[in-house]
Each structure stands twice: as structure tokens, then as C-alpha cells.
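A student in our group prepared the protein record below, which I am reviewing. What it holds is a sequence and that sequence's fold in C-alpha cell form. My question to you is simply how this chain folds and whether the C-alpha cells agree. Do not assume that whoever made the record got everything right. I have pasted the whole thing underneath without changing anything:
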Amino acid sequence: MTLWIYGDLNRGSDSGEFWPIWVVLVQLILGFAVSRWWAVALPVLVVAISVPAGFPPITPSNYEPLPIWVGLAFSALLAVPLVGLGVASRKVVAWQLR
């Protein structure tokens, strides 16, 4: 996520049309792969890491942009439960396989 923030968002390049799907999948896969409850704090850590990134570039369609971390803070409201869902699904799978 840090590479995406500083490599893509900070430069203002277009991430493509389906970026919300990829972000949702990354959160679910992260929770499933880590399989620990502390992983739900990682989206909040991404917000803290993005604070030095500052503002995206000014374009004609975005003439007064908010800092990058503001958008990520709102998306963390969705990312935290998704990571939790990934962790919970891994726990259920492990419980079912016993």
C-alpha cells in the first residue's frame, strides 16, 4: 500500500477503473494471509505512513485537493472490517479443517 501511495497517488496518475475491487481484494487477502487479529490495525498504519505524502497534484478536475491521508482515512473505515473478515475466514477455515 505504501508503494501505491507514494508511487501512484502522490503523482496523480490514474489507477484504472477497477481500483476499488483491487483494494477490497487486497484487504481480504491480507487478513486471510496474516491470520492474526493485530492485522486489523494495518490500514490505520497506512494512513499514518501516508501523511508525509502531502497533497496530490493539482489538475483542472481537482483544483483544491485534500491531503492524500484524508481519503485513506475514510477508506480505512471499510478496510479495517475487510481485514477482520479475512482473519475471521482464515480462523473458520482452520477450525473446519481440524
